[in-house]
Every structure is written in structure tokens, then in C-alpha cells.
Amino acid sequence: MTLNKNTNILIIGLGVIGGGYAAALTAKGYRVSCITKNKTDIEYALEHGMILYGTTELDENLIKSAELIVFAVYPTVFIEWIKSNQHLFSPGTLITDVTGVKSSVVDEVQSILRDDVEFISAHPMAGRERSGVEYSDPEVFKGANYIVTPTEKNTIEAIEVCKELGRELGFTRISELSITEHDEMIAFLSQLTHCIAVSLMTCRDTDSLERYTGDSFRDLTRIAKINEKMWAELFLMNKDALLCEMNSFIKEFNRFKDMIQSGDRKGLEEKMKTSTARRALFDKK
Amino acid sequence: MTLNKNTNILIIGLGVIGGGYAAALTAKGYRVSCITKNKTDIEYALEHGMILYGTTELDENLIKSAELIVFAVYPTVFIEWIKSNQHLFSPGTLITDVTGVKSSVVDEVQSILRDDVEFISAHPMAGRERSGVEYSDPEVFKGANYIVTPTEKNTIEAIEVCKELGRELGFTRISELSITEHDEMIAFLSQLTHCIAVSLMTCRDTDSLERYTGDSFRDLTRIAKINEKMWAELFLMNKDALLCEMNSFIKEFNRFKDMIQSGDRKGLEEKMKTSTARRALFDKK
Hints:
homodimer; about 280 residues; alpha/beta; Rossmann fold; 6-phosphogluconate dehydrogenase C-terminal fold; six-stranded parallel beta sheet; three-stranded mixed beta sheet; 11 helices; 9 strands; about 50% helix
């Protein structure tokens, strides 16, 4: 398949990410429908012109007519959905997802999926600290990264469509990573940061601390307002890679602590110079 | 003294904070001069209408005519300046500062200061990751916290002027803390967060990681672009309180890690629920 304005796109799961996809694609002139579990989310999306049609039912005709299906649901829900409902896909349907961990998901889905349907996995790096379609905003895709994670089961055509989807959504940098590379990267860049933010928020009772705080604490804990069900799932699905990054962070943090303990001003300054130089690469272009 | 539009205000040190003070007070109609070490910073401030007059010299008349002097320099520079130049103050001059640690600074300055001059210490919680007058912006004071840290050596009048200064600068919440309370609070809210951000930035080589990152890593490392000289000084001046907060963070982070290790989904979810509830208090009003 190729992606064009007549492609029937179906989004399954209209949350903050699914909603952002719907809004961005509809704004570009694509035909977007959705299946999601809450009727009120569909009403919201229709009112805001984000979708053509939505239903809470397993609408067989809608699924059959879909040429590109985006799963924007929890990893476990995604896998279960495929198991139960893949007989409803038309041959040649292309499936993609937005899942934050890959090794536990992609292999399983690709191994159970029908041979005449292809699953190409991707990760839009534009999560929000709030969940729900009413917080979806395609503006967050601008300047953000989009990672496609193909396996040997994927065709060049599907990889290309998936990248095209990322570009049409408005992402600035489209990259390709293997499943393993992706999960290591995400353990460091995303999961470790969430573990740090939560620990910072829970390590001390905050009674009236908000009266005295500056922006640094606010920044480091923005993501401490967190969807606990989704993230517990993501952490545990990527356990080994995450534990490895947590240990490496603790090691480095202890090194910094030892320098403070021993009054090693020069060592501290060196670390901070490295930090400043490295951080410069991360500013949004 | 009382603060009014005829008060001669002198700012010593025209960096990102001193510059923000100058701009905010001048915009409100106050008479603001400055002494700072770089001529180009004075030129910048004059061009942008931030000050009435500035000099790189130890201008005796300027210092004598100042009724309120704000020190916006490194802690060690502040102490040395007082030692060398306090004979130039007029009797009745009120001094304040913007220093990020208090126990190592306030006691020393108050103990060496002339009896006819008063020092009331304050901490504007609105630091920036960039230094230099060209990055100063009084807008950052809006919605931010301002902490006055009086000791038994301070008069009620001086405390009131200092709070009034905070209000005139545009700060939203003006609080009072003891020196010890302040330094504990800052060890947690500000110094610990900087140690975390730097360690996160230095614990892994970042080659091309910026291609894959999302906003969470960017947020947690905004302050990893850091003025290494100033922060090494601040960390070491508040060593005991900071080490205590670092240890408590490591303990909590390890607890979270153990839950991941053992697959304790319920424990992780509980922690994250606590985190979400606590973080809600920190949103800017």
C-alpha cells in the first residue's frame, strides 16, 4: 500500500497520542476513523473535527475497509486485540503502533499475525504527562523525534509508509533503530528519567515545599505526574535494559556525591563542563 | 529606610539575576545604578534602558549615595567585597543579596559588617540555565517564589523592605525561612535536582542520542547546562545538607529499582500515584 489522501486510516485507542494522530492526519486531509472504548471521547473528537467517524463497537466493516491501522493502546491490550480480532483484517492491511517498548511487543505480534497482514512498529517520542483525548495536541509532534523499528519480517514498502506517516504527522526527525537498540535507548532517555522524577517526588514529604521551589524542581518532576498503569507496564516489559541504566545512573550519581563529600571542586567543575557541552546537543532545532 | 521611587538602588554584579533586578526595578520607575566588572555589560544595560548609570570602578560617590544595595555576585565575591569595601557605605545603608546558600554567607557577612549598616538576605527562586546580563528577563520572576531569610540581627523594618523589594520585582509568593530551613529546602529543591541533571547527562556518552530523545530527557537535563564555577561553590558551601538529600534520594531510587527488579507492579503503581498527587501541588498558579 501507499499512503495517500484516500487511504482509509483507522486509529484504535483515542487517548492523548491516538487523538494527536487523528487530529494531525485529519488536518492534512486524510480520512480517519477510530475505535475506542469511551463514547464521550468519540463525541469530543467529532466535535473538534478530529475524525470522520468513530465507534465503541468492533465494527467489522470499518476494520475490513481500513488500509492502515494505528494501535494507540497499552501494549498488553494491543497484543490481546490482535489475538482476538485479527480475522477481521482485510488482506494487505498495514498495522503500526505507538508502543514505548518494543522487544516484548513486536516479536509477539509479528509471530502471531496473519501472513497477509504486515505490522511495522514505530515510536513517536512525544508523550505527555496527561492522558486523554482532550489533552491531545498535534503541535507536540513538531520538532520531535519519530523512531521506526523494523525487523527482518518487514518489507521496504511498509517501512517507507511508516516513515511517511511520521512525516505527515509533523515529526521533525525520522530515524530507524533495531528493536534492541530502541529498547536500550528508551530505557535511558525515557524510562530512567521517569524513575528519577517519581523518586524525586516521593523521597521527601512535600508539605508546603511548593512555596519555596524554583523551576528546576518543577522541570525535573513534570513527568512525575504519571499514568501509573501504563508506566508500570512499560517498566516491567523493559526490565533488563532499564535496570542496567538505573545502575549506571546510580554509579555516576555516587561519583558526583563522592566529589562533594571530599570537596573535589576541580572534579565537580569538570563534570559540569562535560554536562554543559553534552546538553547543548539536545536543544530543539 | 523605606522603599520608594526616589530610593537610590545600587546593584553590584550585572549578570542574569542582577540584570533581571535592574530591568524590573527600572521598569517600575526606580532609580537603579550598577557596579559590575565588564564594560560591555553596562553598555548592554544602558542600551536596553535597564539602568540609569553603571561603572566598572569602585565609585565612592555612587556607593555613598546608595540607600539599598543588592549584591548579585558569587558568595565568595560578596564576602570579599564586604571585607574590602564596607568603609564606603553611608550609615543606614540596607544591603541584600540573591545568594543560593545562606548558612555559609549570612552569618559571616553579618558578623563582619559595620553596626550602622544592615544586611537582610533573600533568595529569588528564579535562576536560569544561562548566565550573563543578555539572558536576564524580569518575566521569570512572575509566578516565582522569593524567600527572605532573616536572623535575630535583622530589624522588622529591613525585613519589610526586603519583602517589598520582592513584590516590586514581580515575585508571586514571598516567604520567610530561617537560614537552616532555607539551606535544607534548597539542598532538596535546587541543589539535588542539579546534581541529578548533571549525573544524568554524564552517565552515558550521548553520541547521537539527541536523534531519539523525547521531552522528558530534555526537561530533566535543562539545568545540566550549568555554570560550573558558581554551582561547585554552592554545592560545597551547603555540603552537609546536600549530602543528606542525595542519600535520601538514592535510598528512594533504590526502593523503586527493587520493585522493578522483583516485578512488584502494585508497589510501582502506588509510588506513582503518590508522585502524581504530590506533583499537582507544584503547578504554577
